């Protein structure tokens, strides 16, 4: 979260202070675009897909005899969220969580539905995330996304359109599983990109550590903290979904939920591995800088050691006293230079023998 997002969130927290439970307050960035409602209805032999910008018009096309997926692109219109809640008897606390973009990922089980709230994460030059809520009801899935645009659900839509796989043969619970699975699979692709970036930083760190490398390491550590905060609760979410006693989830879907739980564990393990790698790379950077400083100090110390005796000799014979023994000697100047060069060469040979010079 940057400073502007922190400010917005603090303003929302102040606004919510004292408000009764279930008060729907949108806590994300200010948006003005129209909210799109996508309706997909399907059976094994039929498929219908339509987009709407009005909830009442969308409800006119809902077929009770088909599996339905209603996807809402945009949660900034709290009136629409409230209207959907009244239409399908969704608890006000759930509606409050849907509109709260800072909501921690979680799973909740109600009488007529179950809800999973998580983060859908993207990665281009930096990590970005959006709030995602998936509600499973009898024969229907309702999903709420924070923003418009391409997302992890495009593959699911294509599978529904083409009828590939088992998704159109299964019930709504399998669709809910497929949506959550698509989000978790998206985490893997993000971790792959982060892994490539970590390798690049590691190469720069070994070849030529610089302040830019340090800044990149700090940036990556912040991103990993954010990623860990987003994906760590997913394991608990899926575990609760798997253990839920709701009749909305059929036994045939349980095996897929167990596989999804394994995927979430792998994601978390990878995140922890990358965090440890970045911490180790930070130590390597500090060690490299320290070693470079030690090398500089070694060179300066050797130079100082060589010139101290030479400076002493030059100082003694630079005092210009009248009665100095070698002051009027014909070979005094040459002898002095000879002695100084002998000292310098002797010290260099000694340092080389001790392997203090590389």
Q: Beta-strand percentage?
A: 5-15%
Low-confidence stretches: 1-12
CATH architecture assignment name of the largest domain: 2-Layer Sandwich
In total, the number of strands is: 7
Q: Specify the CATH homologous superfamily of the largest domain.
A: CorA soluble domain-like
Helix content: 55-70%
Number of helices: 9
Shape: rod-shaped
CATH topology of the largest domain: Beta Polymerase, domain 2
Mean pLDDT value: 85
Total count of domains:
2
How are helices and strands ordered from N to C? HEEHEHHEEEEHHHHH
Order of strands side by side in the largest beta sheet?
A: 2-1-3-7-6-5-4
Any idea what the radius of gyration is?
A: 34 Å
Main sheet?
7 strands, mixed
- CATH structural class of the largest domain: Alpha Beta
Q: How many angstroms does the end-to-end distance come to?
A: 48 Å
Structural class per helix/strand content? alpha+beta
